[in-house]
Amino acid sequence: MRARLLLVDDHTLFRTGLRLIVEDHPDVAAISEAGSMADACAHPREDIDLVLLDIQMPGMSGLDGLRLLRQHCRKARIVLVSASVAPDAVHEAWSRGADGFLFKSASGDDILNAITLALAGQPCFPISLGGAPGAGNARPAGAPTPALTARQLDVLELLCTGKPNKVIARDLGLSENTVRVHVAAIFAQLGVNSRSAALLTAQRMGLCTPQFHDAT
């Protein structure tokens, strides 16, 4: 079942830009908008699967309103969005129970990957900037080898051969959506946001050996 998103930000221009990015996500069915915490909490709770919530808003901020919004839509995942890159902001979001944290300067791919992780029930915090332990979109320098599952290692090995998600799904007997979730989780664990970067990082960590094939 495709997800229903709620974008909460008092800046209409930012909401519009974010909406254009989010609309490209294959697992998103509908997108609603709210310009304040009051508007967000007035939204029908059963219609929300994921909330992208701005931290800095007039009246009640996203941090202060997080618990209120959590009570309103209990089943929804909530990812806080902020223009601040301060490590304290990431820590505060995590400690207050957010499911993830996004910088407003994040690339479109980073935003889509974060949505994939959130919808899969996984945390998405930038730990290299002081986020939640054991969760993140980026890994700090010198971090230990990522804890990938056996299935994720299978996906990574095929990803390193240059195979697209459709072929990986066929080879492993999985759905493309499941492969997409695994790839997003792999990116998060490796601290990368592209296949080429994942390949280089995986090689450096000894997680896979690249294989080259003629295009068919």
Give a summary of the structure in a few sentences.
This protein is of the alpha/beta class and 216 residues long.
Query: How far do the termini sit from each other?
Result: 34 Å
Radius of gyration: 18 Å
| CATH C-level label of the largest domain | Alpha Beta
Q: Architecture of the largest domain, CATH level 2? A: 3-Layer(aba) Sandwich
* CATH topology category name of the largest domain: Rossmann fold
Percentage of residues assigned to helices: 40-55%
* Major sheet strand order: 2-1-3-4-5
Mean pLDDT: 79
List keywords for this structure.
single chain; 216 residues; alpha/beta; Rossmann fold; Arc Repressor Mutant, subunit A; 5-stranded parallel beta sheet; 5 strands; disordered C terminus
Describe this structure in words.
There is one protein chain. This protein is of the alpha/beta class. The protein folds into two domains: 3-129, 3-Layer(aba) Sandwich (Rossmann fold), CATH 3.40.50.2300; 150-205, Orthogonal Bundle (Arc Repressor Mutant, subunit A), CATH 1.10.10. The chain is 43% helix and 13% strand. It contains nine helices and five strands; from the N terminus they run E-H-E-H-E-H-E-H-E-H-H-H-H-H. It has helices at residues 12-22, 37-41, 62-72, 87-95, 108-119, 150-159, 165-172, 176-190, 195-205, and strands at residues 3-8, 28-34, 50-54, 77-82, 100-103. It has a five-stranded parallel beta sheet, with helices on both faces. The two termini are 34 Å apart. 38% of the residues are buried.
